[in-house]
Amino acid sequence: MESIPPALIKSLNGLGLSNYEARVYAALVLYDNAEAKELVDFLKISKPSVYEALDHLSEMGLAVKRVTKPARYSAISPEMTIDLLMGRHRKSADQALQTLRVLEKEKVHTDKEDALWTIYGDANIEYKIRELFSKAKREINCMIGVRYLPFIENIKIKTISLHLMVISDDPDLEKKLRKLFPGKNADIHVITTAQFRVPPPFAPPEFEEFHSQMDVENILELFIDDEESLMVPPFISGSVSVLNTRNKGAILQMKMFSQLNWKRFTDGEKLPFLHHHVPKKKIN
């Protein structure tokens, strides 16, 4: 092997090693054992950088220094190295999480709570959906396409009111969802894509063209305790972004349109959350 694969260096970077440390460790694995000069010649990096990397690798227990003249170094096994690095990450993560939870409880609220945020990427969207489901105290109102269904399937909801509507052509989905979210607090509906595309009585002539531009799988309308919402513009695009806000006025306005859809798709059933938590004072 003439060089260290860049993908390996990147992976070791992700586990906490610097570029030099990753390259030196990989070279030691390749060489079995080597002195600093051999590593300098092979890696084409400066002697001070090699020594600094060797010292740090030795401190972490990832390299062993042999008492010879000149000193020679060898790497511990890759399996042990990964275990040690993962252990350091877990310890750091646990310490950071404890401190961050303290900071979260002391959160300073600002007048920027009404901002409209944009969240990009499935991983970030999944995390945000899970976060909102877990922080709900009273009720969750959600209409989603099947794209986001895996994000909520393993979430446990106990005494919180759940109003869930999923757009899917799977005839067995509603039964499955009722098993996932049992209890009298769960109001679950599954509507087909054909039902979703039926225009309402008040639809303008442009409705058909409007719906033709929509990607039903991308639909996401999520309201948590009337305090925070996530909305995905359900239009076909290369990437998906979510609009997130805590602005009370925006939440109530978006929720009002969501309620109209809920009523339309459940064929005139009583709106399940029309009367909940509507502020008495006027919103400017």
What are its keywords?
2 domains, single chain, 18% strand, Endonuclease, Chain A, three-stranded antiparallel sheet, alpha+beta, Arc Repressor Mutant, subunit A, elongated, 284 residues, seven-stranded mixed sheet
List the SSEs and their pairings.
Blueprint: H1 6-14, H2 19-31, E1 33-35, H3 36-43, H4 47-60, E2 63-66, E3 72-75, H5 78-105, E4 116-120, H6 122-135, E5 139-145, H7 149-152, E6 161-167, H8 173-180, E7 186-191, H9 193-196, H10 207-212, E8 220-224, E9 228-232, E10 241-245, H11 248-265
Parallel strand pairs: 5-6, 6-7
Antiparallel strand pairs: 1-3, 2-3, 4-10, 5-8, 8-9, 9-10
Helix pairs in contact: 1-2, 2-4, 3-4
From the alpha carbons, calculate the radius of gyration and give it in angstroms.
28 Å
Domains (count): 2
Instruction: Count the E strands.
Output: 10
Uncertain residue segments:
268-284
Q: What order do the helices and strands follow?
A: HHEHHEEHEHEHEHEHHEEEH
What do we call the CATH homologous superfamily of the largest domain?
A: Endonuclease Chain A
Helix content: 40-55%
- The level-1 CATH class of the largest domain: Alpha Beta
- Tally of contiguous helical segments: 11
Q: Could you tell me the mean pLDDT?
A: 82
- CATH topology of the largest domain: the name is Endonuclease, Chain A
- Give me the secondary-structure category: alpha+beta
Walk across the major sheet and give the strand order: 4-10-9-8-5-6-7
Largest sheet: 7 strands, mixed
Approximately how much beta-strand content do the residues carry?
Answer: 15-25%
In whole angstroms, how far apart are the ends?
A: 68 Å
The CATH architecture name of the largest domain reads 2-Layer Sandwich
Please tell me what the overall shape is.
Answer: elongated
